[in-house]
Amino acid sequence: MRIALSLFFTLNLLWGQFGQINVSIDDRLLRSSERQKISPIKNDIARFFSSRSWNEDFRNLNIPLNISLVFQGTAQKGGIETFHAQILISDGVDIRFFDKSVQFYYNNGGTIHFDPVIFEPLGSFLAFYANMCIAYYIDTYDFFGGNHSFDQAREIALRGIASDFSKGWNNRMQLLKEISDNKGLREARFAYYVATEFFEKGSPDDALKEYALMFEGLEKVFRQFPTGRAIYFLNAHHRDLANKLQILGQDRMLNRLADMDPSHRDVYLYQINKK
User: Fold this and answer.
1) Domain boundaries, the chain
2) Which one-letter DSSP state was computed for residue 116?
3) 45: phi > 0 → left, psi -120 to 50 → alpha, else beta; which?
4) Which of 145, 171, 195, 220 is the most buried (most CB within 10 A)?
5) What is the pLDDT of residues 228-268, one digit of tens each?
6) Could you tell me which of 2, 189, 199 has the C-alpha nearest to residue 95?
7) From CA 50, how far away is CA 220, in angstroms rounded?
8) Neighbours of 192 (CB within 10 A)
């Protein structure tokens, strides 16, 4: 049944991967001439994400992105003016990437280029995180379905490490490894979305089986991995989980969540005590 549901999702994803893209720029540390040079970058970044197909099999993901780019200054590298910045990329749910080592050059009036073979500091950087976001989303539609996009991100990171703009790329490779190797969280996120689908279709027994698999995945995370990404997941979904598990009469699961996620303990215990 899980395979059939996964195939249903796959067949219904037809068009672009990214939906609404909000880009904010903080250029207060730049000189006036530098601010003028990067003035089109907000629209260029939004266009970069939305104007291409990143994955032929999953096209209608409609991922919303909030991108905050904070410029730290400029430097000369090989006679080229390069910008140094920090960036935060999130979907407003449980995707959150903060990168404090962005280094790139920027051509005012041009487009941001990405070539899978030729490394471009800004285009490759943005493409890396585009693939990370897509992998994270596809994992919720297809069991470990994000592997291909994770592989694409890995190829970009390898080129970045070998490039003249290698700053930060070892950290990005480590981030990729931590997320793609975190099988427990990937299993838990997929099971949660399948359980939600079953619950909404009026199949409580099937939903409970998936919630049990979700807990198995989360317990792997809390035993073996840093819990930051799992906390993002629980921050995003704790109220929905608490409500649905209360309706399903799952006090034991709610107590397990209260132990795993003490920040929202009161939410879980409230659902137990409201009967």
Assistant:
1) 2-180, 183-273
2) S
3) alpha
4) 195
5) 899 999 999 999 999 999 999 999 999 999 999 999 999 99
6) 189
7) 35
8) 23
